[in-house]
Write a structure and sequence with these properties.
Helices cover about 5% and strands about 50% of the residues. It is mainly beta and about 300 residues long. It has a 16-stranded antiparallel β-sheet that branches.
């Protein structure tokens, strides 16, 4: 058992002009020795280009900014305090990197009632999108090769007037793992293609996603010859809000990840999460959950955790 500070953020943001702002986010974390260190998670300038036809509310980040997927998913599943999202927890990639990106909505935004009662994030009327080019090493690693990571997300909201909370998303990465690409030692491939269907309402949030790819961001998911390992997996999440004010919720999640789909003896990890949450003030939670991780490899024990988190 242990007490642990899992994340310590402070956001420093300044708007210089209507179309220009800056953000710096120090991130406190505990290293393997137990010492608390301060590193930077975000450090970027944000430009806001004018609307171009159906491309609206655009933002461009230059510096160490958001990658297209995890920030989007975390604003549907707000329980990042329980643990990282599915693809990050599988050590595929993390949430920020050095580069340049642009994102925006499709055909304006949903009405104020939806944004107030359900979610104000990524509230494009017909969906949203995000494209970026990055170093590929993530926010806490130096770039070890000359390749760049191309990443993109496209989200479609097919029935904004009938079922505004329904969205269908596709996400992809084409990159190299963050290993040396010196002559005779090519960096391994790192590719991801994922899809997710999600639903948000005042009382229910649910997602289902599937991913298929090879390698990982760090370049460590390789075989003995240094070739990227093919992987796939899926994740299901649901939150039921028990009262109209969204103070009390029940949450559940199931992750399934095959670290090498070509090897029947490779480990297949199954994670079960169940918990209850109390939002005692807007955006502030107590979360009590049970987390079980099972492995398919014989002799590798399951891992169980009970956790009480203040966010």
């Amino acid at each position: 058992s242990e007490f642990k500070i899992k994340r310590g953020y402070i956001n420093i943001e300044k708007r210089i002009a209507p179309n220009l702002s800056f953000r710096i986010t120090p991130d406190a974390h505990q290293d393997d020795t137990g010492d608390f260190k301060l590193r930077l998670k975000y450090l970027y300038a944000e430009f806001r280009p004018p609307d171009i036809g159906f491309l609206t509310q655009m933002k461009s980040e230059v510096g160490m900014g958001h990658m297209p997927w995890l920030d989007f998913e975390e604003h549907i599943n707000p329980y990042r305090c329980q643990g990282t999202m599915f693809l990050e927890r599988a050590s595929t990639f993390n949430s920020a990197d050095l580069g340049i990106s642009i994102r925006g909505n499709l055909f304006g935004q949903l009405d104020e009632a939806y944004q107030t009662n359900v979610s104000k994030y990524y509230a494009g009327r017909y969906g949203s999108w995000h494209l970026g080019v990055y170093n590929g090493g993530g926010y806490h690693a130096v770039e070890k090769n000359t390749n760049k990571a191309l990443e993109g997300r496209l989200t479609i909201r097919p029935m904004p007037d009938i079922v505004p909370g329904l969205q269908v998303s596709a996400f992809g990465i084409s990159a190299k793992g963050n290993q040396s690409d010196t002559p005779g030692e090519a960096a391994p491939d790192m590719n991801v293609l994922a899809a997710m269907i999600s639903y948000e309402s005042r009382r229910l949030v649910a997602t289902a996603q599937y991913e298929r790819g090879e390698g990982n961001q760090s370049g460590t998911a390789v075989d003995a010859e240094g070739n990227a390992l093919p992987h796939d997996g899926y994740s299901l999440f649901a939150e039921v809000r028990l009262d109209r004010a969204s103070k009390f919720s029940v949450i559940g999640r199931y992750d399934w990840f095959d670290s090498n789909r070509d090897d029947p003896f490779a480990d297949v990890a199954k994670r079960y999460i169940a918990g209850v949450a109390w939002q005692f003030h807007k955006g502030n939670y107590w979360v009590l959950d049970f987390d079980r991780l099972e492995h398919s490899v014989l002799g590798r024990k399951s891992e169980d955790r009970i956790q009480l988190t203040l966010q």
